[in-house]
Design goal:
Strand content: under 5%
Number of strands: 0
Structural class: mainly alpha
Order of helices and strands: HHHHH
Number of helices: 5
Distance between the termini: 8 Å
Shape: elongated
Amino acid sequence: MKSADALAELERHQSLIRAEIALATEVAEREPVSWHDTLAQSRWRMFRLLRAYQLFKHNEVYDPMLRSSHPGRAEQARALKASCIATGERYELYTSRWPADAMARDVDGYRHALREQVAGLQQQMVEERRIVALLLAEVSRTRMS
């Protein structure tokens, strides 16, 4: 994949995730009686979006950079990949901690956890975008095949 295309694809994934974040955040601020089903659906959409984003980054950016002969590029890719995996694990923990019945029992706690989760995801995406852009600026393609 051409580097410019890879960066555009990364931005497309991030845009979809940001839209889902906006929906979940807006719904969570409503009266709790009305949001359980919508938030449950949103969380599964988010899980699928995050997984697709993770697979894209690993297959098209991180893994090719790890195979790079450039040590600095490989080290940055290794750190990003580890951070990406940790972010996925945090999201899984968050969803397991907050099933629908827990959200109903502790609305304020859930809203707080959602805000923390959103802040972490947004920070992760900003950092990934910044470093991936730098990595891709140094190469014309993410991988040769």
